[in-house]
Amino acid sequence: MIAAAGLLVGIVAGVLLHPEVPVFLQPYLPIAVVAALDAVFGGVRAVLDGIFDERVFVVSFLSNAVVAALIVYLGDQLGVGSQLSTGVVVVLGVRIFSNAAAIRRHLFKA
Amino acid sequence: MTHPPAPPGASGASGPVRPDASMSLLTEVMQRPLDPGYAAAAERRRAAGQTRPGRPRALTALAALAVGALLAVAGVRAAAGAPEADRGRDGLLERVRAATERADDLAARAARLRASNAELATRLGGAPAAAAGAAADALAVAAGAVPVTGPGVEVVLRDAEPDPTAAAPASSGRVVDRDLQLLVNGLWLAGAEAVAVNGLRLSSLSSIRAAGEAVLVDYRPLTPPYRVTAIGDPVRLQTRLASSVAGRYLQVLEDNYGIGVQVRARSGEDSLTLPAAARLQLRVAEPPGGAGASGAAGTVPGTGATAGADAGGGAP
Distances in Å between the alpha carbon of B37 and those of A40, A42, A67, B162? Predict the structure, then answer.
């Protein structure tokens, strides 16, 4: 509940406050979004599995975002930024889909 | 993520090598999407004797807040980025419009100042200047320095109607710079005293050119239909134009390409008014009475200070 409230407040704040994203961070924004989504879906599934753990959720969210950004940064420096971005998106995307499927099974039993 | 890649779903069965062992990365990704940390934490809690996982608290709310803000910012940025191209185009159009307006204003202001300058010079200079002024006035019409009103002819060229049966839009039915050049030259040859295209007065150094599909007169883009007005004896202009090369050329354009050519005499109530040419500037000046002394080739002898037409850098 409190997490859902936090999510809602965050979205409203982001829309209303229009925070300026620093230019050097802008290329990593989409990747960070995907990583954050992965953490969120993992957390929701853990809640439904009954094994949710706050520390794991927070750490996995932060580390996911940081590692994803790091990989993309490294790729940019090496000249393969777009390929590595694709790799990150594919891996995280697959995880998101699997977790979403598990959540769906929990909720709808289907 | 830090766990060793144990074969998923095979608890303790480490005996036979799995057939898909070489694809352990893919199976890992596909079959264990949940962060192993959750399972490990649950295991620890069970070992410690806790039965319930800790309730989500402030940290979770904070992380969720961060996620929400991230999503919102990314969404806002994506929404703002989509019509960026359109906005850029609109901005450019707006700037073109504003710059054209400003150029018009400045041209009008320059014309006013030039007129008042001429008047002041005449008042200041006394008789010689007045004589020179009279000589300059005689040339002013030819130079395009003053607006002129009088009878003349008006020739309107229209692009051909696009043929609906044609597969691709044909460009041959379009009026191009060459057509206007020939028509204007024909009008001069027929005895026109002043010529304007779409209200832009031509001087002896004006240019008619094309850029892409647009026709430019003195670097100002024109929009069809093209209205060429010439001051002179309407009857003489019309007959001489019709019998000249330009007249035959117009006939060919009309017959073969479907370009609309409309020639009309304008006189009496209906007579034409052409504005002064823009972008005239003084290029050659001699002190009065010193015409023979300088003797420089290329000056305009005997006119004193006279207005020459600005070449504008690109006139042929």
Answer: 14, 10, 16, 71
- Is 0.80 surpassed by the pTM of this model? no
What are the tens digits of pLDDT across the range B213-230?
Answer: 788 888 888 887 889 999
Do the chains contact at A56 and B30, CB–CB below 8 Å?
A: no
Tokens matching residue A108? 């709808």
B173-213 pLDDT, tens digit per residue, is 788 888 889 999 999 898 888 899 988 888 878 888 888 87
The answer for B20, left when phi > 0, alpha when psi is -120 to 50, beta otherwise, is alpha
By C-alpha distance, the chain B residue nearest A98 is: B33
Q: Measured between alpha carbons, how far is B35 from A92 in angstroms, rounded to an integer?
A: 12
**Chain centre distance of CA B108:** 21
- ipTM > 0.95, yes or no: no
One-letter identity of residue B189: L
Q: How far apart are CA B206 and CA B196, in angstroms?
A: 10
CB-based contacts of A13, cutoff 8 Å, min separation 6: B65, B68, B69, B72
Residue B38 and residue A29: Cβ atoms within 8 Å?
Answer: no
Its sign, for the CA torsion A23, A28, A33, A36, is negative
